[in-house]
Task: structure prediction
Amino acid sequence: MTVQGKVAIVTGAGQGIGLEICRKLAFDGASVILNDQDQDLANRAAASIRLENGICISVSGDSSEAEVIDQMVRLAVGEFGCLDIAIANAGVTCFGPFGNFSRADFQRVQQVNQAGTFFLAQAASNQMIRQGRGGSLLFMSSVVGNRAHRNLAAYAMSKAAIQMLAKNLVIELSGYGININTVSPGATLTERTMEDPDYQKTWAELTPMGRAGTVKDVAHAAVFLVSEEGRHITGQNLVVDGGWSAISPNP
Result:
């Protein structure tokens, strides 16, 4: 997939899906700005990519904050001369029953998942427009943006909103050669999900393909959508869930 010579920003990428996207981009020839809220995690992640001869710079901080977004865009342009790809991967998952879900948790989920995505897309697309050569935006949604899942009302709401944002931006950005899509992972084996000792077995039983997804499954789909081969795909949501959303059994 052709991303050779491209410059990309990926948020929430200190580990898991985000880190694997950065690895795939870097090893396919892109220069990557890797963001994570945890400074040590961001630094170690970027260093691991550089050890394998990938080009990667870390930026720590909350990717929903204007200052961090602006820093990432300035760094991309200052270090590499342009910005071609922006992937809003950072997200917060807060489980809790609807009846007593706290206002603080709700606002945090919407701030990171929705506002972080919206304003990264705004800053990145404005830079792409100034450059005059197009670009690609990608937002990380979720299968629960399309299928109900117990105790995830606020999170699911935010992920559905991200899909609608991508569709709406088709109207505003296509004329500048910018495509916008979302990826919706299903159950995926990451450092966080594997803290649950039953996670892998449970989701292997619930997934028609017989296993939970891997970070590589999601990263390959993501990089395809921001590559030259995916440039005529826009306003779409690509589900990577081994068939779970076709039948949607809850654990």
Summary: The CA atoms of residues 171 and 235 lie 9 Å apart. The chain has a mean pLDDT of 96. The domain at 7-188+216-241 is CATH 3.40.50.720 (Rossmann fold).
